[in-house]
Amino acid sequence: MQFDFFPSRRLTIYLAKMFIVRILAVLVMLVLVLLMLDLLSTTGKILEAEGNGQAEIWTYAILRAPQLVARFLPYSVLLATIITLVTLNQNSEVVAMKAAGMSAHQVLAPLLLTALVVSVGSFVFNERVVTRATATLKAWDANDFRAVPADSGVRSNLYLTDGDNILTAASVAGSGDQMVLSGVTWYRRAPSGAIAEQIRAPRATWAEPGWRMENAERFDVSAARAGTAETVTVAAGVSPEQIALGGVDADGLSFWELRRSIAEYDAAGRRTAELKAKWWHKLSGPLSAVLMPLLGAVAAFGLARSGQVFVRAVIGMALGFAYFVVDNAALAMGNFGGYPPFLAAWAPFLLFALIGETVLIRTEE
């Protein structure tokens, strides 16, 4: 048995069923609690839009739930790992398996296989459901939860530079000369690099060249003086084509769509480090579920009567949550160009795989 990676077929099915039931239970609990908390903070904004009611609240919940599932599935696998292994340990089932000649890796093998299946399912779910829900929800949110036509092409959170100056917009609709920016802010920098002037407007249209801001409000930073400007044209160096290229939302695109967008950015000579890091993370993110049984394995071993089970469970939980902290930090560093994109997405995975394997071998093998 020492040379077989998996235990018997019956034992493998027993452990896998126990594990998957706990994953689903923990995931449902987390998603329901977090969705209720999210609705408490968002329902008021949804109902502010004229004509919105209970149906729109349900629509928001349906669009938000896939995002929560995708984000907290690895956490669910981690917590389910610890619950499963602690239960096996307290019932002396781990002792029985090791007495039968099974190694620690063989005890974990069914859990690792189940986590791999969960990772593949998570990737497919992200590609087919989460990306579409995210794109729809962001467009709806950018439009203040008012009705968004299906073909409007609304995008959110525009940020572009024109020399040293900055143009931002809460949302972008339309294309070409018919493009309209909403929630527009223009920041003009002084030669020293500090912000010299800020102009805000609810709407801006293409003025060939530049963007015509209507009903604008001006704030002179150096004089600390506010004023109004009925119409002002800014950002002459920013074209609709640049805005169309700058409106890529990695979270709302599938793996292959994001790859095409990165190729277009490369062809235009634009910076792609952030997009490439998120592209790689579309693979490493779902695969992180495979790490959770390895990081939580410390909870499975050691005698239950020794009183160390709780301590071991806390250690396993700490290792798992440390991975998520390091993963988010590395991805942020990749977005800022501090790490190469591939390293930002995969270094935490490889690092904690080595840590988990080292802890398992040193303590149990």
TrEMBL record:
Q: Name one Pfam family in it.
A: LptF_LptG
- What sections of the protein cross the membrane? 12-37, 68-87, 107-125, 309-326, 338-361
GO BP annotations listed: lipopolysaccharide transport; transmembrane transport
The protein's location, in the record's own words, is: Cell membrane
Q: Which InterPro entries match?
A: LptG (IPR030923), LptG/LptF_permease (IPR005495)
Q: Which UniProt keywords apply?
A: Cell membrane, Membrane, Transmembrane, Transmembrane helix
GO cellular component terms given for this protein: ATP-binding cassette (ABC) transporter complex
The protein's predominant localisation is membrane
What is the membrane topology here?
Multi-pass membrane protein
Name the chain's protein. LPS export ABC transporter permease LptG
Which organism is this entry from?
A: Tsuneonella aeria
Phylogenetic classification of the source organism: Bacteria, Pseudomonadati, Pseudomonadota, Alphaproteobacteria, Sphingomonadales
